[in-house]
Design goal:
alpha/beta, Rossmann fold, two-stranded antiparallel ribbon, 5 helices, 11 strands, NagB/RpiA_transferase-like
Length: 181
């Protein structure tokens, strides 16, 4: 099965790179933000967990700024040994460091337990319409989601939807996909 996922992940990354180079990326993002900000999940959340997106993903900086405007707490993950991760509070003064994977992680000591996060925005490369996802391949989110009790969502470009694969037992479903349609 993982051979199919590997292939889909590679295609998914190529798709994301195409979108990143297109002039439509910002328009597509605006549609996704609009859905997110109007959702009950967003409006009820006081604490939001998300990653610092790389250039091929839906940009998360506008989400962080909107959250701060609305008085929400933003948490960003740091990877830990044994493919675990933990979420840390950030503010406008937080400094970040780039990991070997090219991901920005906060230089922060204020960590939160999974149940303190009201809404977790889960990244991914390919999505099944039922909410399953193929991530970037580290398995960090599948492991984290196994013990995460609250709301989850993902920000998805239409081009990332692909139903030609079967989720595996350890795949964790995302509750809500916000898609640019």
């Amino acid at each position: 099965m993982s051979h199919i996922k590997e292939k889909l992940r590679k295609l998914g990354i190529e798709n994301l790179q195409k979108i990143a180079r297109s002039e439509q990326k910002q328009q597509k993002e605006q549609k996704i933000y609009q859905q997110l900000f109007q959702s009950n999940e967003w409006q009820q959340a006081k604490v939001v967990g998300l990653t610092m997106a790389n250039e091929i993903e839906v940009a998360t900086t506008p989400i962080i700024e909107k959250a701060w405007e609305e008085g929400k707490t933003i948490l960003v993950p740091k990877t830990l040994p044994e493919r675990q991760m933990c979420f840390f509070k950030i503010d406008p003064d937080t400094r970040f460091e780039r990991t070997a994977f090219g991901v920005l992680e906060p230089l922060s000591d204020h960590s939160f337990s999974p149940d303190a996060i009201d809404l977790l925005i889960v990244p991914g490369v390919v999505y099944h319409q039922n909410g399953y996802r193929i991530g970037f391949g580290g398995g960090y989110y599948d492991r984290y989601l196994a013990n995460y009790p609250n709301q989850t969502c993902s920000l998805v470009f239409q081009e990332q939807i692909n139903n030609q694969w079967v989720p595996e037992s350890f795949d964790k479903k995302v509750q809500h996909l916000f898609i640019d349609k």
